[in-house]
Write a structure and sequence with these properties.
Blueprint lengths: L5 H10 L13 H8 L27 H10 L6 E4 L6 H8 L3 E6 L2 H11 L4 H16 L28 H15 L4 H14 L6 E4 L2 E4 L10 H21 L8 E5 L2 H4 L7 E6 L9 H4 L1 H6 L6 H10 L19 H12 L9 H22 E12 L1 E3 L2 E3 L1 H12 L3 E11 L8 E11 L1
Parallel strand pairs: 1-2, 1-6, 2-5, 6-7
Antiparallel strand pairs: 3-4, 7-11, 8-9, 10-11
Bound molecules: S-adenosylmethionine.
Length: 445
């Protein structure tokens, strides 16, 4: 540890109560051990008040405590942590706060920017002066709906439409924000502003988004967002994220590489060995993250046309059947997977999409690719820790942890253990009971 300032130590203790023992000699051994057991700590329960988690509401994020517990479980201070499925960047920012080098890969360009914004060398002074310039520029920038002309037709209110995500005056205000963000010269500052806007977009729209996709709010036509609401939310979110920049301004700056790409191929470019490879991939439950973050991707300009959307979907893990693509099965051996795929094929007619058996096989091939690279990169004392969840289709349970453990053994990982952390509720069609396990699969070289 490079003598971090006392203020940093305090704030870290406040937000990351279970920092590893080597981080803080005063921390109790039992606390660290409790955290290392992983129970119920994998996902963040309520990140609203947690530094950096509150930059963007990301339901599936790790809790920082889980990452610190994973680091702590190594029993020594790691040099390098890799997360191939970055999401909102919990592994990256937690590693940085603990002064550990990190690499993370994220396929979604908006989420990759969320991570970059969190770990970039911003200062409160830079943001203060950028905010003053931004507000001054906003006054003199006219609304220009032409800026949003690329958006799908349901996005902006116009005559003849019966549904729209943004009223036309809010869309106009958004166009002003976007123009002023583009005018910011410093790339880190520009990204910070874009992420702030991304964090409030859905709240300032007529829709809400959950695991099932996008839905219109009840009585939305009577309660539409206003430009005042947009201004207020932007200001509030700016202040929240700014506060974390200010508090952690003098944190140790370890090297954090954020790779915007597809981890199935992007990991090949990573050369530095890792002590810990920790991740939670999408679960094979047909939930497509491209849909969930569609409003942010389109409005912020990460997606400019339908082809961009398809390209992004093609780069995501084969955990859904939103687009048709090639399906290949893992090369390693898993008797559980063989049995599962044959059970799925037997009930193909009862499945809501006939490609589900092949999608499930391909899902494990994708994770096998990530594990191949993980094996190459893992140091002999290191660990891979994967948080994975089971799925179920027509009463066939996809035992993800068991299949991955079998594949990992056939790839030559030395020690393979599975720890169940909680039971998840299955979908309403399946009775909605708690019957799907979420587990941590731990692999050693
Ligand atoms: C469960 S989330 C990870 C959450 C993360 N642990 C956190 O704390 O925020 C899975 C992430 O994997 C990303 N993803 C999906 N396919 C990917 C791919 N092929 N390469 C890299 N990331 C991918 C999704 O966009 C999503 O953000």
């Amino acid at each position: 540890m490079r003598n971090p300032p006392e203020r940093y130590l305090q704030t870290l203790r406040e937000h990351f109560a279970q920092a590893p023992q080597w981080f803080d000699a005063k921390a109790g051994a039992s606390e660290a051990a409790k955290a290392a057991s992983g129970a119920a700590l994998t996902t963040y329960q309520d990140g609203q008040d947690t530094a950096f988690q509150r930059w963007f509401h990301f339901k599936e994020a790790f809790s920082p405590e889980f990452v610190t517990a994973a680091v702590s479980s190594l029993g020594y201070r790691p040099q390098h942590v890799i997360d191939p499925f970055g999401g909102s960047g919990t592994s990256a920012i937690t590693s940085q706060l603990l002064s550990i080098d990190a690499t993370t890969v994220e396929v979604n360009p908006f989420l990759a920017d969320v991570i970059k914004a969190k770990v970039s060398p911003l200062t409160a002074d830079m943001l203060r002066s950028a905010a003053a310039d931004f507000l001054a520029r906003l006054q003199g920038t006219p609304a220009d709906l032409g800026r949003l002309a690329h958006l799908p037709s349901t996005f902006v209110e116009a005559e003849g439409k019966d549904r729209w995500i943004f009223p036309s005056d809010v869309a106009g205000r958004l166009s002003q924000y976007l123009a002023c963000i583009d005018a910011i010269e410093d790339i880190d500052v520009q990204r910070f502003f874009r992420v702030v806007l991304g964090a409030i977009l859905v709240d300032c729209s007529n829709v809400y988004v959950n695991g099932k996709g996008r839905r219109y709010r009840g009585a939305w036509k009577l309660n539409q967002p206003t430009t005042e609401k947009l201004d207020e939310h932007f200001g509030r979110q700016f202040n929240t994220s700014f506060e974390d920049v200010l508090r952690f301004e003098r944190r140790p700056r370890s090297r954090v590489a954020v790779i915007h790409g597809d981890s199935r191929t992007a990991l090949r470019q990573v050369e530095t060995p890792a002590d810990l490879i920790v991740f939670s991939p999408p679960y094979p439950n047909s939930f497509d993250y491209t849909d969930i973050y569609n409003v942010e991707l389109w409005v912020l300009g990460y997606i400019g046309c339908a082809a961009d959307n398809t390209k992004l979907r093609n780069e995501t893990l084969r955990s859904h059947v939103q687009i048709r693509r090639g399906y290949d099965a893992p090369v390693g051996e898993s008797t559980t997977l063989t049995r599962t795929l044959s059970a799925l094929q037997d009930c193909r007619a009862a499945l809501w999409d006939s490609s589900i058996p092949e999608m499930v096989g391909a899902y494990f091939r994708d994770l096998e690719l990530v594990l191949e690279q993980s094996k190459r990169l893992l140091v002999s004392t290191g660990r891979v820790m994967m948080v994975v969840g089971d799925s179920r289709y027509a009463n066939v349970r996809i035992e993800v942890a068991t299949v991955l453990a079998e594949l990992a053994r056939s790839m030559g990982f030395g020690q393979v253990t599975i720890k169940e952390v909680r039971q998840m509720r299955s979908s309403a069609q399946q009775g909605g009971e708690y019957q799907l396990a979420e587990s941590i699969v731990e692999l050693r070289a």
